[in-house]
Specification:
Blueprint (H helix, E strand, L loop, with lengths): L1 H33 L2 E8 L3 H4 L2 H10 L1 E8 L1 H10 L6 E3 L3 H9 L7 E5 L2 E5 L6 H8 L5 H4 L7 E2 L7 H16 L5 H6 L18 H7 L4 E5 L1 H6 L3 E3 L11 H4 L5 E3 L2 E3 L5 E6 L6 H11 L2 H9 L14
Parallel strand pairs: 1-2, 1-3, 6-7
Antiparallel strand pairs: 3-11, 4-11, 5-7, 5-8, 9-10
Helix pairs in contact: 4-5
Length: about 325
């Protein structure tokens, strides 16, 4: 009888210890969560997965920052930052053009390159052109000839609002030049704003990834980081065409694209980061920007199939 009572007491003491520990640990965890400083980051849509995944987790641990994100087409984000409909501490677009929009408006003074990528052709595993795509991916067929097949359905975003929409046009321009195919852009893409390929011209297109997986779309140009991470099939493009080169503008000084009243030039697919002038959390923004250029963040980018920047030259006016 006494033996049973002793066991009950020990059990009671043990459970009581756990409760006491819980009373200590739980408030500590809550305190740790409360001590994370908010950082608002506006970015290109292609950076969303990093900002809501590995960068968010690691920045919380390394810098005690709680990253909040707003991501869509980089040009649209820049416009929202300037008209006041969006506020942020840090801006991370892809390509220099959206960042120069911010720099020229005086909303940032300098932007640092933090990662880069390249353009690839993502094709549907349910496409009726699947075998042709597979041969092109293996280097056994010309990818630019496959794209000219009658009835092939291409999706792309609006070049007026999204660097990705301009990137695919510049890729076709470079291919036309490389392969001596002067009509290639018109044959593959049609007009610059083609409603058959850009179903939603107000934003940047619908859920094209879902449509691609269902076979409603045959192919689309995307940044390599997406399919490289998910294992989706894609066609890699030659280095002098895939917009990865840091000397694109110098190599092709006469290449340009006019969309409405705006003239664009080919740009390498580099992600830039800048702290914004009216940042609500300037110290945190500066710390985050420095961290993005450091070994920990750069390793995270590499793990996610981004490439390291080969030209560390910042952007400024």
């Amino acid at each position: 009888m006494n033996h049973e009572i002793t066991i009950d007491r020990r059990s009671f003491i043990f459970k009581g210890s756990l409760v006491s520990a819980g009373l200590i640990i739980l408030p500590a965890l809550r305190l740790a969560a409360q001590q994370l400083s908010t950082l608002d980051v506006a970015s290109a849509g292609s950076m969303r997965a990093m900002l809501e995944g590995p960068l968010k987790t690691s920045a919380a641990q390394a810098l005690a920052l709680d990253i909040h994100t707003h991501a869509q087409g980089a040009d649209a984000v820049a416009a929202s930052l300037l008209d006041g409909s969006l506020s942020a501490d840090v801006f991370i677009p892809i390509t220099a053009h959206p960042m120069f929009t911010i720099l020229r408006a005086g909303e940032a003074s300098i932007a640092q390159p933090i990662a880069r990528t390249e353009l690839v052709l993502l094709y549907s595993p349910r496409s009726r052109f699947l075998r042709r795509f597979e041969l092109a991916a293996q280097g056994k067929a010309n990818w630019w000839e496959v794209l000219q097949q009658p009835g092939l359905r291409i999706a792309r975003s609006n070049p007026a609002l999204d660097p990705g929409g301009r990137a695919v046009i510049f890729v076709m321009m470079l291919a036309a030049k490389k392969y001596n195919q002067p009509d290639l852009v018109a044959k593959v893409l049609g007009p610059t704003i083609n409603p058959d390929q850009i179903p939603d011209q107000i934003s940047t297109g619908g859920n094209t990834q879902a449509r691609l997986q269902r076979g409603e779309i045959d192919v689309m140009a995307v940044y390599k980081t997406g399919p490289a991470a998910t294992g989706q099939p894609f066609i890699a493009l030659p280095p002098d065409i895939n917009l990865s080169s840091s000397t694109l503008r110098e190599d092709h000084p006469n290449l340009s694209l006019t969309v409405g009243s705006n003239v664009f030039y080919p740009e390498p697919l580099i992600f830039y980061a800048a702290t914004l002038k009216n940042a609500a959390h300037p110290a945190s923004a500066a710390a985050f920007l420095a961290w993005l250029q450091g070994k920990e963040a750069q390793a995270l980018f590499q793990q996610a199939h981004f490439d390291l920047v080969d030209d560390p030259t910042p952007l400024y006016l």
